Amino acid sequence: MQKRLLTFSLILNVILILTGGTLAFKFKEKLHQYLFPPASNNILLVGDSLLAQENWALLLGRNDITNLAYGGAITLYILKNVEVLSPKIKPKICVIEGGVNDLLAGVPEQRVFENYTKMIHTLQKQQIKPIINAVIYTNFPEINHQITILNQQLASFCQQNQLVYVDTNQVLSEKESLKNQYSLDGIHLKQAAYPLWANELSSAIKKLDH
Fold this sequence. Notes:
single chain; Rossmann fold; 5-stranded parallel β-sheet; 10 helices; 5 strands; globular; GDSL-type esterase/lipase family protein; Ester_Hydrolysis_Enzymes
């Protein structure tokens, strides 16, 4: 299993180098499932390239993860994925991440928040437990201000509704900005950021995986 995971990571890195990342994000999940299909679909991941570009089976040390995140996703499209695919996959837990692409495209943070709440309600109707990941800060102050407002809304909503909220910014960001040692281009993450994120996410999953 470990050798197959490492082989996959090497193949993905080659694709990233050759294509600049676009095809890697597009075909990552198909390649992942071909090399080592999940034993079950207990955990569903939905989001954008931040979630898509790493191997969460390896990071979290479990083989029951289905990753449907992809590069360029906005929360409206993530919502559609949740509505269409979660009934088919029937996971126990769904991790939701996204929002930065919306804000970069000029979508108001209130609309992003509304898309999040729709995803949460959709999952709850199917008896799927949601985990809400905070929108990760960038290196762009004007976007980070919006991220702060959005994360405050998400954290408050989760607290009021007793939902699990993962504030990855506690380990990846400082003073409302992504730390330089974890920033690849101001938005995407360096590989060193993912074990820290995975540690936070693993703790959240353990709260619900029983």
